[in-house]
Amino acid sequence: ETLDKGLEKTKTSFFSKMTKAVAGKSKVDDDVLDNLEEVLVSSDVGVDTTLKIITRIEARAAKDKYVGTDELNTILREEIAGLLSETHVGEGVEFSIPKDKKPYVIMVVGVNGVGKTTTIGKLAHQFKQQGLKVVLGAGDTFRAAAIDQLQVWADRVDVPIVKQKMGSDPASVAFDTLSSAVNQDADVVIIDTAGRLHNKVNLMNELSKIKRVMQKVVDDTPHDVLLVLDGSTGQNAFEQAKQFTKATEVTSLAVTKLDGTAKGGVVIGISDQFQIPVKYIGVGEGIEDLQVFNKHEFVDSFFS
Ligand code: GDP
């Protein structure tokens, strides 16, 4: 039910737009499809993904000769569910990490303000709840506030944090964090990084250096490169995903702030376009307001 609450604004806005899109129409025709296209684009599903959905519905309408607008919701639900199935979107139900990787290392990337620190704190809390030993690494050494805020979360969740002075080498912080985690026999390491997109070459170099140095301590790390995107920024989130996937190999996504926005459709578009699983969604500022993303629940919640 938290998911329903988190998606409330997206749903309300989507349904009122859908109602307008089919008003006075009983048959799905070109006009209705045009309107539907507008609804999806304005719900931040993204142009490419919207066109994919429209093309499928168009084909269905052509094949079946007559499709009533009263069926449109059901059809849309099926098409979106199908689309999400083709992408490897998260199907998880609980927070978990592979048992054969210890420590399991998550490197978190994303620009400032998207909810990176909050997501790290919430994740640390979830893992700790399961009895896992968590260590945080304050790898965003570019801003003093980033280190301080991560410290606040470390205190709140009561997990150790490894940090250095502002301006120190993030790779060195990552090295220390992993060494400390190995010494403590920790289960999970979550490393924060700075996300300065305006300097792409630097970003790329910095992230690959962090990876290289971490691999001196634990083979094949990081196990997960989690990109945090602010769902309320719609198209900016797409742009950031584009930039970060160019700079490093992103293996999963967290989409935050879905509670405060009508732009929740972004989850559908981003997972379709980048073929990277949305693993977590943020639905509030509280410590418990992070959920494992599950596509079935998402579609159910959207269309119920
Ligand atoms: P960072 O700069 O990327 O580390 O961003 P922060 O973690 O400091 O978050 C920026 C702001 O967004 C803070 O005020 C957070 O409380 C807020 N925030 C983060 N995640 C969510 C979320 O899922 N929902 C809401 N409503 N606010 C969030």
Give a structural overview.
- The protein has 304 residues and is of the alpha/beta class.
- It is built from 12 helices and 8 strands.
- Helix 8 (170-184) runs parallel beside helix 9.
- It starts with a helix and ends with a helix.
- The site of guanosine-5'-diphosphate (GDP) has 18 residues, from helix 6.
Task: Give a brief description.
With 304 residues, the protein is of the alpha/beta class. It has helices spanning 2-6, 8-22, 30-42, 47-63, 72-86, 116-129, 144-157, 170-184, 200-214, 235-247, 266-274, 295-302, and strands spanning 104-109, 134-137, 161-162, 188-192, 224-230, 252-256, 278-282, 290-292.
Structure classification: alpha/beta
General shape? elongated
Helix residue percentage: 40-55%
Assembly type: single chain
Biggest β-sheet strands, sense, barrel: 8 strands, mixed
Attached small molecules: guanosine-5'-diphosphate
Strand content: 5-15%
Could you report the average pLDDT, rounded to the nearest whole number?
91
Order of helices and strands: HHHHHEHEHEHEHEHEHEEH
Family: Belongs to the GTP-binding SRP family. FtsY subfamily.
EC number: 3.6.5.4
Keywords: Cell membrane, Cytoplasm, GTP-binding, Hydrolase, Membrane, Nucleotide-binding, Receptor
Organism: Maribacter algarum (ex Zhang et al. 2020)
